[in-house]
């Protein structure tokens, strides 16, 4: 169950980062509220996950999910341009996240 908390927390990190972009520097109240709610949910779920998962495992996975997810949202919805070599490093980040999960007992 803690892995589900952790993965969901990472997805909510993508949610709050996306809404933060849409809030235009917290100048749009509705998106600002969604940003704060996303942060709260993400942090609560991360806290639940770290009750039994080591911080040295949970935090990198949480941030990795947030990083890769934010890149995907940026490219898909905001038209961000990512170079070919950058995609290689994004793939390495994904491999690292999966590798951490696989090698954790």
Descriptive account of the structure:
One of its GO terms (molecular function) is transmembrane transporter activity. Belongs to the drug/metabolite transporter (DMT) superfamily. Small multidrug resistance (SMR) (TC 2.A.7.1) family. The protein is mainly α and 105 residues long. The chain has one domain (2-103). The chain contains 4 helices and no strands.
Task: Present the secondary structure layout.
Layout lengths: L1 H21 L6 H21 L5 H23 L6 H20 L2
Helix pairs in contact: 1-2, 1-3, 3-4
GO molecular function, one term: transmembrane transporter activity
Subcellular location: Cell membrane
InterPro entries: EmrE-like (IPR037185), Small_drug/metabolite_transptr (IPR000390), Small_multidrug_res (IPR045324)
Shape descriptor reads flat
Helix content: over 70%
Figure out the total of helices.
Answer: 4
Q: How many strands, which pairing sense, and closed or not: the largest β-sheet? A: none
> Nearest-angstrom radius of gyration?
15 Å
How many strand segments? Answer: 0
First-residue to last-residue Cα separation: 15 Å
What structural class do you assign from the helix and strand content?
Answer: mainly alpha
Query: What is the ordering of alpha helices and beta strands?
Result: HHHH
Low-confidence stretches: none
- Return the domain count: 1
Strand content: under 5%
What oligomeric state is this? single chain
Global mean pLDDT:
95
GO molecular function, one term: transmembrane transporter activity
Transmembrane segments: 33-50, 57-78, 84-103
Main location: membrane
Membrane topology: Multi-pass membrane protein
